[in-house]
Amino acid sequence: MDDETALLVDSDRHRSNNHSHVLDLYPLSCYYFGSKLPLPFKDDTLADRFQRMKSNYSAHGLRICVEAVILVELLKHPHVLLLQVRNSVFKLPGGRLRPGESDIDGLKRKLSSKLSPNEESSGLDWEVGECLGMWWRPGFETLLYPYLPPNVKRPKECRKLFLVKLPASRKFIVPRNLKLLAVPLSQIHENQKTYGPVISGVPQLLSKFSFNIIEG
To answer: Strand 157-165 relative to strand 63-74: parallel, antiparallel, unpaired?
Structure first.
C-alpha cells in the first residue's frame, strides 16, 4: 500500500469514527412528562445506606450499579437528565443489578421502573449504547474513584455509566417522590460540591462526542 492510499484509508476511518461519535439531541419539548405512584425509599440516613451495602455485600459480593447518561437539547445547549431525591441529592437514572443480571437488562429494568409507565412493558424501548466509564468504591464508606486502585483486591462497589440515546419522542413517567430535571452540562462540569464526583465528571466522558441539535 503506497502513502497516498494509506492516507485515503486513514481519512475514511477518521470520517467513520467521527460519524459514530455524533449524538443527535432532540429538544426537551419533544417529550411528555407525567407522574406515577412514589417509590419507597430504602434508606432514611447515610448510615442506613452503608449498613444495607454491608449486608448485601455479605450476601452477594460486589455491588454493581448501572446508570444512564441521557441527553436532551434546551436553549441550544446539551442537558443531562438527573433525578433529584428529597430535593437535595442528584442521581443519574439507574440502580443496582440483581444477582446474575446483565448490565443492559438491568439498566433497562431500572429505567423502566423510574422513568416509564410500568416496569414490565417498556424495557425494550431503551437504546443502551456504550459504557462511558466505571467508578469503584474500595470500602463501604470511602469515596468513589474513576479507576480501581491496584492495592484494592476486594472492592465493595462498581458503578458503570452507559450512554442511552433517546428517540424523537417519549413519555417519561416519574415517581411522585422523585424529580426529573434537565441540567446543562456546563452547570455540572467539575461541580462536585453540588453533584458529586460521578455526575460532575460526565462532561469529560462526553468530550469525544459532537452534538447534532435536531430542530423541534
So the answer is: parallel
Q: Identify the H or E element spanning 71.
A: strand 63-74
Q: Is the pLDDT of residue 6 over 70?
A: no
Query: What pLDDT is recorded for position 9?
Result: 47
The H-assigned helical ranges of 101-184 are: 103-115
| Ramachandran category for residue 193: left, alpha or beta (phi over 0 → left; psi -120 to 50 → alpha) | alpha
Q: How many CB atoms lie within 10 A of CB 61?
A: 11
Report pLDDT for 57.
Answer: 87
Q: Which residues pair with residue 81 across a beta bridge?
A: 182
Cα 50 from chain centroid (whole Å): 22
Query: What is the residue-averaged pLDDT of the chain?
Result: 88
CA–CA gap between residue 72 and residue 92 (Å, rounded): 14
Task: Report pTM.
Answer: 0.87
- Other C-beta atoms closer than 10 Å to the C-beta of 171 total 13
- Rounded distance between C-alpha atoms, residue 103 and residue 81, angstroms: 20
Residue 180, φ and ψ in degrees, nearest 5: -105, 120
Residue, of 46 and 67, whose pLDDT is higher: 67
CA distances from 203 to 21, 32, 69, 83, 181 (A): 14, 25, 10, 17, 16
First to last CA, the chain: 47
